[in-house]
Specification:
This protein is of the alpha/beta class. It contains 12 helices and 20 strands. A hairpin with a 5-residue loop joins strand 1 (2-9) and strand 2. Bound molecules: zinc ion (2 copies). Residues 57, 59, 165, 242 line the site of one zinc ion.
């Protein structure tokens, strides 16, 4: 299993994030936002495999690259076509889908798109059809949100957190499932022969008193699970951009981000410009680093810097953040 990512775009320009989860059995690709030039960096082969396009919000600098992605995939049937946006943005997305002359589409175009609006307590989805030129929003049954999870995939989950950017902005968190393996050295030391019982051993936790038979002898399943199973925590990555990180927001985010492997987070302003950050509903590098330290994450990747800063200033912002949270980096190549 692996979780890989690539921060897209240039410093001080539009940005996005590409994530690939490979479970060994299947691969799932995510594109978080679609800034100008960002999908080009992923390349057409991978873009045609992206199943989930997850928007933080629909300000221009996060949508400007959408047309390339859509042009490649508008009539795709090999994969599900899913777009996620914050609540209140479904109509803007509908305009994006309709915003071409579709006189050449016909019944043969079977592509369908599901656009889901993420609200605090619900997910509201509309289905759009290529053969209709995306004219009609066909409402799907509204789903209640009982927790942060919006996608429960094979071997991974995606959680969504609503943030305040003056308009709602969605933060996303992709988690690989934990891996449970049998410790073969311990198995060998016990002299147990592999058999059907191993499948049960790796399955759900033992019921009270449950036993498995190995070579004609009954053994306590609970004891064996404790002794022989090794759990490896799955990787995780959060994508947080375009939001005002107030102390109250940090209090909400810290428990959700605790122990996350990588957090890719906006860093529009330096601490000296906190007034500006406050005014335009963005965050400073130091605020973000403080949240990372409190949540004890693995690595913080700063991105989406304001274009008012040059390379020297960005380097200083990185250094400032590192005094608060040591394992802070810029994206590769920045
Ligand atoms: Zn932005
Ligand atoms: Zn924005």
């Amino acid at each position: 299993m692996s979780l890989t990512f690539q921060v897209l775009g240039q410093p001080g320009r539009d940005n996005a994030l590409f994530v690939k989860v490979d479970t060994g059995q299947s691969q799932t690709r995510f594109l978080f936002d679609c800034g100008d030039g960002c999908p080009h960096q992923v390349g057409p082969t991978e873009l045609c495999e992206v199943e989930h396009l997850c928007f933080s919000h629909l300000h221009m600098d996060h949508v400007a690259g959408f047309d390339l992605f859509f042009r490649l995939n508008f009539d795709r049937v090999a994969k599900e076509n899913r777009i996620w946006v914050p609540h209140g943005s479904g109509e803007v997305m509908h305009h994006r889908l309709r915003g071409f002359m579709w006189n050449l589409v016909d019944e043969k175009q079977e592509g369908e798109w599901l656009v889901s609006e993420i609200a605090p307590d619900t997910v509201r989805t509309a289905r759009f059809l290529a053969k209709e030129g995306f004219r009609t929003a066909h409402a799907e049954p509204e789903q209640e949100r009982t927790d942060r999870t919006i996608i429960a995939g094979e071997g991974f989950t995606v959680e969504a957190m609503l943030l305040d950017h003056g308009t709602p902005s969605v933060g996303y968190l992709v988690r690989e499932a934990n891996r449970v393996n049998v410790d073969t050295a311990k198995l060998g030391a016990k002299g147990f022969k592999p058999g059907p019982w191993l499948k049960r051993l790796r399955g759900p936790g033992a019921a009270p008193g449950e036993t498995v038979e190995i070579g004609g002898v009954a053994h306590s399943l609970g004891t064996l699970q404790t002794e022989l199973l090794v759990t490896t925590l799955g990787d995780s990555i959060a994508y947080l951009t375009d939001f005002r990180l107030t102390p109250a927001t940090a209090d909400e985010l810290v428990p959700s981000l605790r122990g996350v492997t990588t957090v890719v987070c906006e860093s529009q302003y330096r601490a000296a410009d906190a007034d500006l950050a406050n005014k335009v509903m963005h965050s400073t590098a130091e605020e973000v680093a403080s949240m990372a330290a409190r949540a004890a994450i693995g690595r913080l990747v700063l991105f989406h810097f304001s274009d008012r800063y040059d390379a020297v200033a960005r380097r200083e912002m990185l250094d400032d953040a590192r005094t608060i949270f040591a394992n802070t980096t810029l994206p590769d190549g920045w």
